[in-house]
């Protein structure tokens, strides 16, 4: 028997033939596992019809043997025929119901406490696995695989080798595949890690320039609800091996890129597992309790005395031979959210010491905070060198830099008090413009000192102290490793400068902020250029018009700049144009003349009182 496949016009259509043949082959492949289970498939029916003398009788026989083996059903089927219900529809509905019941039963068996529950599931897997590619049976097979704590290796290899099966299998099955295949797990994790970094950088360059809604505003619990953290937590589950792999990926990427957001993810991942009470992992991670305590401090944005002693106990408790733990602890302290909390706590400590006339070196809490900040700042060097030893804190930071910074605070306080005195008691002293040499030097040479110096800028900006800001900003042009031009500092600085928005009406203030600081590096650092434009999007109407005009020309992006920069500049130009149009135009006021005759008033002096109108 021969036949041709024809298209809609009755003509032979090769593409039509090719697509139908491929579909037939696919269907045949799907049902290929039925004979292994002693169930007839399409090939058996074809052979029966080819060799039988009576095809109708053969079809009836095939339906009897392969239909639902329920004697009472046979007499009921004709009623369905009378209602016009196709047998296929009936059998499909029965099949769907049975499949759902079977899947529920699998879950009940797996959650039970019977000793042989997993052997029952393995037996069911052996019977059903040959049909794993049959779409109608596949959900049952996947349900069984999902609930088996240890899937036979042969079955795992089959699933891993077939892209379609791998895609649809549950994450519980994938974990068993990943734990012995680091490269495959890396391929799954890599896009999530990239997404995490993109999200963090997007937050730093967000259009929301404000002190109230900054990068550090979300609470730790809120941050852990992010898509990437939740997905990674689900992928790891309770598997310690996968958790160790993710940590290794984070260490490697941190070393390769120096991007501190990987340190944030390391801490967030551990605390996300803590929230879910995954003791299998939390109990074996030596950083768990330290991270838990630090997380509480980050939530409060302050390290109090009690928690400081707890953190010190963890650091002092690192035993000989376990020094590698310091590598992970330093990463956790390198997290920008941890650094932010530590430096804010240091600033608060310094204010208390100033009010008590005490020296920084006499405060144990301050010394501990500096120790942790130093450990966090040295994370990259420690992991890179593999020398797991706490970096020694430069004591001159305490004995020279901090007193220099405190002298700046004292200068400011003296000037503030002086301004409040009656004019006859005021001296001729002007606000100091120079800074102590030690302050300059340590900003350039020491990263711990530089971090504290940068946060002191935020402190005076919060106080809306224009004089101190004009004194300090130019000193940030040359800082340790260009920390003053990093995205985190610039994100916070632009937000804090909005508190002094009215000061931008003065060209002198604009000159200090832009000419003496921000514009010194914007041409070589695109991120600085972007942060300037972010700030101007919010403050353009406050900036002195003549200064704004020259600033716009200076900030025009070069041709080779990124699309994000060009887009920001375009937005700023649109805002400026809209502001010009919305500005009120001074028109000649209408005359209020009521048509009254002018009254001549005598200019001669009269002792008689004038009568009011």
TrEMBL record:
<dbReference type="GO" id="GO:0032021">
    <property type="term" value="C:NELF complex"/>
</dbReference>
<dbReference type="Pfam" id="PF06209">
    <property type="entry name" value="COBRA1"/>
</dbReference>
<dbReference type="InterPro" id="IPR010405">
    <property type="entry name" value="COBRA1"/>
</dbReference>
<dbReference type="GO" id="GO:0034244">
    <property type="term" value="P:negative regulation of transcription elongation by RNA polymerase II"/>
</dbReference>
<protein>
    <submittedName>
        <fullName>Negative elongation factor complex member B</fullName>
    </submittedName>
</protein>
């Amino acid at each position: 028997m021969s036949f041709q496949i024809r298209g809609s016009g009755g003509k032979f259509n090769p593409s039509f033939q090719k697509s139908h043949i491929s579909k037939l082959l696919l269907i045949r492949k799907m049902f290929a596992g039925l004979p292994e289970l002693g169930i007839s498939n399409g090939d058996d029916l074809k052979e029966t019809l080819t060799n039988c003398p009576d095809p109708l009788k053969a079809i009836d026989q095939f339906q009897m043997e392969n239909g639902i083996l329920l004697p009472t059903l046979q007499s009921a089927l004709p009623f369905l025929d009378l209602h016009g219900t196709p047998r296929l529809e009936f059998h499909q509905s029965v099949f769907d119901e049975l499949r759902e019941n079977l899947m529920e039963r699998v879950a009940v068996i797996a959650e039970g406490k019977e000793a042989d529950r997993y052997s029952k599931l393995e037996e069911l897997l052996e019977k059903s696995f040959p049909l794993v590619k049959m779409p109608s049976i596949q959900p049952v097979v996947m349900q069984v695989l999902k609930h088996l704590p240890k899937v036979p290796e042969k079955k795992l290899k089959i699933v891993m080798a077939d892209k379609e099966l791998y895609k649809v299998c549950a994450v519980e099955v994938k974990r068993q595949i990943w734990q012995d295949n680091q490269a495959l797990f890396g391929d799954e994790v890599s896009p999530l890690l990239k997404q995490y970094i993109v999200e963090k950088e997007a937050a730093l360059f967000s259009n929301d320039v404000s002190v109230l809604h900054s990068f550090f505003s979300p609470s730790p619990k809120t941050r852990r609800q992010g898509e990437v953290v939740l997905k990674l937590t689900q992928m790891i589950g309770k598997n310690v091996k996968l958790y160790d792999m993710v940590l290794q990926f984070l260490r490697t990427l941190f070393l390769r890129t120096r991007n501190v957001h990987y340190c944030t993810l390391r801490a967030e991942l551990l605390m996300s597992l803590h929230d879910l009470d995954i003791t299998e992992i939390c109990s074996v991670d030596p950083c768990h309790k330290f991270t838990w305590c630090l997380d509480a401090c980050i939530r409060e944005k302050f390290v109090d005395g009690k928690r400081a002693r707890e953190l010190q106990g963890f650091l002092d408790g690192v035993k000989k031979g376990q020094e590698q733990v310091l590598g992970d602890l330093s990463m956790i302290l390198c997290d920008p959210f941890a650094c932010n909390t530590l430096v804010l706590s240091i600033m608060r400590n310094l204010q208390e010491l100033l009010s008590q006339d005490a020296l920084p070196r006499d405060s144990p809490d301050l010394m501990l905070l500096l120790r942790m900040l130093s450990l966090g700042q040295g994370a990259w060097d420690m992991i890179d060198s593999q020398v797991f030893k706490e970096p020694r804190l430069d004591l001159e930071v305490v004995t020279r830099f901090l007193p220099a910074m405190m002298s700046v605070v004292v200068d400011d306080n003296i000037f503030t008090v002086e301004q409040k005195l009656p004019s006859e008691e005021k001296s001729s002293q002007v606000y100091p413009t120079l800074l102590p040499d030690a302050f300059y030097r340590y900003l350039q040479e020491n990263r711990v000192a530089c971090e504290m110096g940068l946060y002191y800028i935020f402190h005076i900006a919060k106080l809306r102290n224009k004089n101190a800001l004009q004194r300090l900003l130019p000193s940030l042009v040359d800082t340790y490793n260009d920390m003053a031009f990093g995205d985190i500092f610039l994100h916070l600085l632009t937000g804090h400068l909005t508190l002094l928005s009215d000061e931008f009406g003065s060209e002198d203030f604009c000159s200090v902020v832009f000419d003496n600081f921000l514009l010194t590096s914007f041409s070589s650092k695109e991120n600085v250029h972007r942060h300037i434009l972010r700030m101007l999007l919010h403050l353009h109407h406050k900036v002195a018009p003549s200064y704004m005009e020259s600033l716009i020309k200076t900030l025009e992006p070069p041709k080779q700049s990124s699309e994000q920069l060009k887009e920001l500049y375009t937005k700023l130009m649109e805002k400026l144009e809209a502001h010009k149009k919305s500005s009120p135009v001074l028109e000649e006021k209408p005359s209020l003349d009521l048509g009254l005759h002018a009254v001549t008033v005598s200019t001669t002096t009269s002792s008689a009182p004038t009568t009011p109108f």
